[in-house]
Amino acid sequence: MCPRPRSERVVVIGAGHAGVQVADSLRAAGHDGPLAVVGDEPAPPYQRPPLSKEHLASTGTAMPLRAERFFRENRIELRTGVTATAIDRASRIVHLDDGGTVPYDVLVLATGAANRTPAVPGADLPGVHALRTLADADEVAAALPRARSVLVVGAGFIGLEVAAAARARGLPVTVLEAADRPLGRAVSPVMAEHLADAHRRMGTTLRLGEAVAAFTGRGVVSSVGLEYATDLVVVGIGVVARTALAAAAGLPVSDGIVVDENLRTADPAIYAVGDCASHPSAHTGTRIRLESVQNATDQARHVATAILGDSGSGPYAELPWFWSHQGPLKLQIAGVRLPDDESVPCGDPATGRFSVCCFRDGRLVAVESLNRPADHIAARRLLSAGRSPHPGQVGDPAFSLKDFARRPVAA
Amino acid sequence: MPKVIYHHEDGATETVAADAGSNVMRAAVQNGVAGIVGECGGQAMCATCHVYVREAHLDSLPEIGEDEEEMLDCTAAPRDERRSRLGCQLTLGGDLEEVEVDVPATQI
To answer: Hey, is the C-beta of A242 within 8 angstroms of any chain B C-beta?
Structure first.
């Protein structure tokens, strides 16, 4: 890869964790050219993880991703409340919904994802909320103190975080989940079962194998014909990558904007990072799309390096990791588990502090830790170094991931 | 109003006034103090708000929690057994009206 001039015009579409990090890393690495970040939300860039957690517990203000001063001092043109409507790849121009245009030498798509909406009657009724943006979170936070009960559609991370926040306020909470366990394929069956029990103990009613059939304005009718009266519904049934802009520009899209191992699209002048990017993963050997802050910021850093032509870093291969706080439950995941991987509990699930080690062909590929941050850190070290205990070792009650990670590597 | 003084590697110093109940990470991010990232939003998950607290303030600090203890083992800059803390766990106000910290050379 030839080094690019550091004076090129870089435009980033999307002002979330990924988009802002691209701009930050470019400047930090010495990029000196014009740099613009275009975001369609009106608010200045903000931290997303607290929205489904602390933000619902108190009427706090959003935590900024960077202070206004950061953008000014780094000469980053931040344009919020503006939507990119089209990319003219031949002329290298982005068209905006305010009628303006922005020229680019390099374009980075950090368009993120949008909430999936249930295709059932009444999904747009008042009182039916989603939770992704600050505006969404403000609406739910304002509705919670007035609500008499809460119904959550979807037992994914967002749904369960909302359920825990609502239970912490003492509200009756019911969660409808179409699958037969929470968190779908995101965690191992052992962990899913433990989390389901923990939420039940918190007082949440989990209705598994039950989807939403209709929203009525007074509640929800489920797929088995039951009616749930409630004044607040929060839907969390996953997201879809925001790919329309890329697709309309003729870029390949397949559950995300298709990028190579350096996160470059089929157009050498255009990259994609974060939730919207479908990338080849060294950790699964397949193409994946990840929705996490770690993925957003690490991919952003990688792209900044790639844009500046410093190809020494090699293909993108950062170890994925993720966390979710659900009331007192602190779940941390390192690596990527696939459905067929072998899951071996490490520690006693009955104590509420344990991990699940996931093996593929006998090698450690992911570790889910519940209220065991030491295991999580150890797992990140082991997975990054490509070290693995034997599956049989892990099942031994005396085995400790932390001790194993600290052990010197045999020569 | 609580006050945080950030000392950077190059000798520069920034003083930030913060609300009681805020913390050393949040005050830095909200005021654009470079070198403190706070990638996880303050949940003791990412260890990117690592700071070295200056000696004079060590007695005023809250105890290190279990999660913080573990995360401090994976900071990008070396951990100092006495002075290393996560900025997100240092709540301002009460015993901690003022604190001076050194910002590490790197967080990532």
So the answer is: no
